[in-house]
User: Fold this.
Amino acid sequence: AQKVTQAQTEISVVEKEDVTLDCVYETRDTTYYLFWYKQPPSGELVFLIRRNSFDEQNEISGRYSWNFQKSTSSFNFTITASQVVDSAVYFCALRDYTGNQFYFGTGTSLTVIP
Amino acid sequence: DADVTQTPRNRITKTGKRIMLECSQTKGHDRMYWYRQDPGLGLRLIYYSFDVKDINKGEISDGYSVSRQAQAKFSLSLESAIPNQTALYFCATSDNRGWETQYFGPGTRLLVL
Assistant:
């Protein structure tokens, strides 16, 4: 069965601190796809990044970076020098090999305190 | 214009009423999904459709029904609304490429009194 776990329900940091959001997944597929989405207070869901199971290369995009490790079934997300605008709920998701469904974690609510 | 639209954006209704939430997309995707979001529970899949003739139940389909009127339109109905259906509802689309993301509508906030 597919499952995504985001153990951190809520995180608060002071502005300019670094913060890492954890995501652990379960799947028996050898081919799968991982995603991160951001949901700001306005409510929409914004796609941030995707990774396929064959690509363990870490990625950096501005203040955002992602660490994908198949050995630990983790796909963690780090925000460097956090800003108030980063305050949001962040979701990790897994898409199975068939592509039929997406499996979402329960989300991590991040609050950046000015 | 937004690629995925939902109407209404907000709705208040009473227990027992039938309501319909509508979703339209201009992305040309075959696959469409309905989710509900509740605090602390993330997004849970209600129904999904891979084409006009294909409808599938998701994790929490009880109390809901759907209609795929066209490739671009996917409606969610609550036949007899109850208070625990109060939630934020999202429509999403995707194509059939496994690596492709889902594209979400802006959401519909539903309050059942």
About this structure: The mean pLDDT of chain B is 92. The first strand of chain B starts at residue 4 and ends at 7. The radius of gyration of chain B is 13 Å.
